[in-house]
Amino acid sequence: MQIRNYLLLLFMFSLLTSCEVDDDNNPVPDNSGAFSEGILVLNEGLWGQGNSSVSFIDGATGEVKQGIYSEVNGSDLGDTASDIGFYEDLAFIVVNVSNTIEIVDRRTFESVATIDSELENPRKIAFLMGLAYITNWGDASDPSDDFIAVFDARTFDFLDKIEVEEGPEDILAIGEKLFVAHQGGWSFNDIISVISGDEVEKTITVGDVPNDLSEDNGFLWVSSAGLPDYAGETAGEISKIDLSTMEVVKTFSNAAATWHPSNITVENGLVYYTLGTEVYSFGSGEETLPSEPLFNMEEVSNLYGFRLHEGRIYAASASADYTGDGKLYIYNTASGNLENTYDTGINPNGIFIAE
User: Fold this and answer.
1) Which residues pair with 152 in a beta bridge?
2) Cα-based distances in Å from 321 to 46, 301, 302, 324
3) Edge-to-edge, what's the strand order for the sheet holding 210-216?
4) pLDDT tens, 38-93?
5) First and final CA of the chain: distance in angstroms?
6) Which residues contact 254 (CB under 8 A, 6 or more apart)?
7) Full DSSP string of 18-31
8) Could you give the 3-state DSSP secondary structure of residue 39?
9) pTM (predicted TM-score)
10) Secondary structure of the chain: what % helix, strand, coil (to 5)?
11) How many helices (H) and strands (E) does the chain have?
12) Domains and CATH numbers, the chain
């Protein structure tokens, strides 16, 4: 079924159901699950060993619970988890090497369903108008088989496969469109795909190896790492894209080939990014990059996950050799002071706020 027709059916259904309000038949959801409020940390584990996990830090007590998916469901999460996306009362956990998406109740983490078909090397997930969009590398050595898999977010039925250029990674829904950063799979790429409905309507060229996307006040911000040293090292870039024209209106760069920004995030009109373990910030309307960092996250061994939320920076650190348990460090954004440290699982790559 074409996505446009499917969205039309969803819209018509919503009009019908919105006219029927019955408190008895539409009870208030039970929000009292064990994992309702706090911090979820996704741990990818070790490639090929099937030891991905999710850690939970209780927002009220600070208690850390490790391996909550396995504890609740009595089974392993899978091999190399890469993302968690939230839709209504559900959490969709993308498990890359296992080629699955484990769907759980977001508050209890009880298993609801598993998607184990129409995926090949899935990476990241986003939701738009009742649909789940998952970036897939396909065979990472084949530059021509990459795609976005589309599923109904309520029934989990497969709907469509949107062919895209090589290496789709980060994906962000803004308005009625999706924006996909193409790192390049095992190779390298330098584009953002703009998807509307079931097709790519435009690609936007940015710096080499775009790694993160953030939206603020009508602009899309993109951090691009640049090529690594083994591939003829190039400096990264930060791109500012006007969402009304889909054009790059400002490019921030650095002359040094070793300049590799990542983790771009915009909050309260300030643009944040990282260089190694240093955190930088500048106003979204400024024309130049800062010359000095806000602070250095000195405790972080290997910055593997990053989150900015309400004045705090959550930095997930892999162990020094990437084989042991990691740490989550929480810093005050204004002062740079370290506020809390928590243990995580192996190679924590994502931080998600449960609220």
Assistant:
1) 131
2) 11, 9, 9, 7
3) 210-216, 219-224, 237-242, 247-253
4) 999 999 999 999 999 999 999 999 999 999 999 999 999 999 999 999 999 999 99
5) 35
6) 235, 236, 289
7) HT---TTTSPPP--
8) strand
9) 0.91
10) 5, 50, 45
11) 2, 28
12) 117-260 (2.130.10.10)
